[in-house]
Amino acid sequence: MTATDIRASSATLDRSAVTKPRNMGQIIRWLLLFIGGVLMVMPIAYMISTSLKWPHEVYNVNLIPQEPTIENYTYVLEDGRFYWWFVNSIIIATITTISNLLFDSLVGYTLCKFRFPGRQIVFIAILSTLMIPTEMLVIPWYLMSQSLGWLDSYWGIMFPGLMTAFGTFLMKQFFESVPDDFIEAARIDGLNELQIWWTVALPLVKPALAALAIFVFLGNWTAFLWPLIVTNSVEMYTIPVGLSGFGDEADVAWELIMTGAAISTIPTLVVFLIFQRFIIRGVVMAGLKG
Amino acid sequence: MANLSLRTLTKAYAQTEVLHGINLDVADGEFIVFVGPSGCGKSTTLRMIAGLEEVTSGEVVIGDRVVNHLEPKERDIAMVFQNYAIYPHMSVKKNIAFGLRSSRMSRPDKEARIAEVAGILDMTHLLDRKPAQLSGGQRQRVAIGRAMVRDPAVFLFDEPLSNLDAQLRTQMRLEIKKLHQRVGNTIVFVTHDQVEAMTMADRIVIMKDGHIQQVGTPSEVYHSPANTFVAQFIGAPSMNMLPGTLNGGGVRLASGQSVGTIHTSTTSRPILLGVRPDDLTLQGSGPTVVTGHVAVREPLGAETLIYVTTEAGEVIAKADGRSPPDVGAHVTLSADPANVHVFDADSGSVLT
């Protein structure tokens, strides 16, 4: 064996030693990603598949319907109730989102940029509400709604979520990244504190606002427990509450529920597609802020 | 007429006093520079003038009004910050126009004013750009433009050049000085860089530990320092300080070396003999100050800094750039008595 051969064979050995673990690692990574992808996509695929099936085929697990039909969509869209639920959900999710964007950012900004006695205590008090589960809060909420005459109304459904501790915390953390010099420069330029918040500070935390908008909109769009408790009339139901009522004790109309669910994902997709570039940046920034 | 006056101005955070009764009068149209090491109180003083910090006691007077209790926007001032503080979501034009938001000017007048300022700062072609599309120097000009557009009684600059590289800093220094000559407003400029202070100021205020050490023209603070702190803070390299004793007008250094008659005082006392590197000559006609051996040479082109090891300690001198003494060479350093400073060893104050 010549020196050249030895060098060539050792080079081959080295390359195989280096590339083999990398290939294996890549295979495992791709496999895990594939499994993760399947786990995420399958429920959506089954939702769409079931919405295209006749009732007698619903319990058949095949993904492709044997006799595809859009009859369920026609039924759900022609059913006046679904229209009301859809409108209710849109109104509630939109107002709650706007309210959160305004008030969470206002409180977050105040807690971040103003020094006043008790500031830390107020912040801790707001944060500590994150530790109380919704199940514990629904009874006080219900009693409060009842005493204010808000049962079975938009106010009743919306009031617990008009401001959130999570949103306040998120916005406060983002405002930390806004240099005080901007605020002081605006003060010298003659703006009052509310104008500074609106004109200078808010535009600088747009990614956080977009992320919060998506979180709040999705949260309220899919909320089930509280709307179920506070509403009585079918006209005041939101989509999740209304869909759960499709069918009766003896027979759950899964094909209609899945059809309603499929339609109801459209607004969330629209919201996400509009704000996704902000949310991705927002999550990265939130990670950096710790 | 004083355009800005500080009267026994103090600032305390809780029980800690950081500014101890500052008194200063700034004339209309004067360019005054506060300089000092970090933590000396220069930025705090500026922020108190701006109204961004509360005054603990004393008065800030702008024009003929005591402005202690006025909001920043009511003080007729404009400020340029260290990190520019130009709004990244607004165009250059909107940033400049921002300074006019609370003005009662008509829209065409505002447009004309913005165009005028942009013209002065050579930014007309940049008006539609966002700050992210600008260089550091251009951003600084936008910040200055936003301050200029309001034509305030007093401009405040808080270390505006510290974020720029050396070349740009020199360029901006010149631009700000030209701008001052053109617009003629009063400027209060804070920096920790004594070269900036020397090159730009009409008068320099040197601060340390919340006290003013000396107020004077660049020439005064350089050639007639009030104390050892000013003597060593102003000028690079620093003034040499040699411990010794004043006796009958002559000085005997701690090393035993005797320096000729350089002071009129005949009172015997411990002193520090101060002499700037540029005032020491290798073959001068003045009295010999010290002798020693060249330890290190630092060629700077036109001149060479030589570090001379003497019995009195290390002394820095300037030698000719073309034929400096070799390392290890024995040198005799002399100085004109008029350029030698004598400071009290205990208080650090200059002996006059």
Walk me through what this model shows.
The complex is a heterodimer of chains A (290) and B (352). By secondary structure, chain A is an all-alpha fold. Chain A folds into 2 domains: 49 residues; 214 residues, Orthogonal Bundle (MetI-like fold), CATH 1.10.3720.10. Chain A has 13 helices and no strands. Chain A starts with a helix and ends with a helix. Chain B has 352 residues and is an alpha+beta fold. In chain B, strands 6-7-8-3-9-10 form a 6-stranded mixed beta sheet, with helices on both faces. In chain B, strands 13-12-11-14-20 form a 5-stranded antiparallel beta sheet. The relative contact order of chain B is 0.11. The mean pLDDT of chain B is 89.
Structural topology:
The complex is a heterodimer of chains A (290) and B (352).
Chain A: H1 3-51, H2 71-78, H3 80-113, H4 119-128, H5 134-148, H6 154-158, H7 165-175, H8 180-188, H9 193-204, H10 206-221, H11 225-230, H12 239-244, H13 254-289
Helix pairs in contact in A: 1-13, 2-13, 3-7, 3-10, 4-7, 7-10, 8-9, 10-13
Chain B: E1 2-13, E2 16-27, E3 31-35, H1 42-50, E4 57-62, E5 65-66, E6 77-80, H2 92-98, H3 107-120, H4 136-148, E7 154-158, H5 166-183, E8 186-191, H6 194-200, E9 203-208, E10 211-216, H7 218-223, H8 228-233, E11 240-247, E12 250-253, E13 258-261, E14 269-275, E15 280-281, E16 288-299, E17 303-310, E18 313-320, E19 330-335, E20 340-344
Parallel strand pairs in B: 3-8, 3-9, 6-7, 7-8
Antiparallel strand pairs in B: 1-2, 1-4, 4-5, 9-10, 11-12, 11-14, 12-13, 14-20, 15-19, 16-17, 16-19, 17-18
Helix pairs in contact in B: 2-4
The CATH level-2 architecture of the largest domain in chain A is identified as: Orthogonal Bundle
Q: Ranges of chain B with pLDDT <50 over ≥5 residues?
A: none
Oligomer: heterodimer
Question: Largest interface, by Cβ-Cβ below 8 angstroms: which chains and how many residues each?
Answer: A-B, 15 and 22 residues
* Computed structural class of chain B: alpha+beta
